[in-house]
Write a structure and sequence with these properties.
Length: about 325
Amino acid sequence: MASRRPQVGVLLSTRWPLLAARREGRAIDGSAVLRLAEQAEAAGLDSVWVGDSLLSKPRLEPVATLAAVASRTGKVRIGTAVLLPALRHPVTLAHSLATLDVLSGGRLVMAAGVGGAFTAEQQQEWLAVGVAPQSRAGRLAESVQLMKRLWAEERVSFHGKHFVVDDVALEPKPLRPGGVPVLLACHYRTGSEAQYRRAAEGADGIIGITDSPQEYAQVVRRVDQLAAQAGRDPAHLERAFYMTVNVAHDPDRAANEADEFLMAYYGVRHWGPTWGPWGTPQAVAECMADYLQAGADHLIVRFASWDPEEQLRRFTQEVLPAFKQLAAW
């Protein structure tokens, strides 16, 4: 089990306001996301997160949304789960994130991933901004390297395959020395040695999704091994896991709502047995404890529901107390 006190956060679904507006035939209510952030902070949660997609899964833009969240909160960490840096130029993104970190009082963390290019819609997303889909892994790696240097060094020259800058200085710097913490997505099923090595050698931690606890534990072990080989202390890496749940005392009702919501969200039924649970607070708490045992020290919970405010209430009032007992918090 993780030695540090586990951190618990929730995803603020920036896709949900668009889906709900379409489903109910009304205008988009962006303030609902901000209310959720305020409620999460008031409930004592450690963090709030937003996702990213440009065209294939329309939603509120993540950096702008987190700036609004920062103005309505004062303590919770704010993060991206996950950002797709390869869609953007790293100098522009580094400036936006550094500004957001300053405005939030140094609360920002960037979890990032390569992103998908498996469907026609996903392919179009990359091509629309002039990015070859097959270049996204290389662009991610170079983006992280360049942004970290821009945040930490006074002047930077960088000559990569995808990005070249000569003698540039970025201001403002993030408030924390070294810049915004970066967590890189690592998956057992779809991952690669290169993915694990990027995180082990150049990131501040990892974020997992869809893997079972047993699979996630293997990812943690491999990244720790590679970090040690690179001369880094694995104990200093943050290990986050992103899970999707629906909390209800009627598991059938929870499963039906989760299925309807996720079909509207993705348009294809691609989730499997490692998603969930859809059901009782105790079942959700036990699943969270399983990932904690697998090596996670930060759990991010997304609600597969049309009523995230009610889900958040159930989570904080019924799931968290059970989880704290299981985790000996």
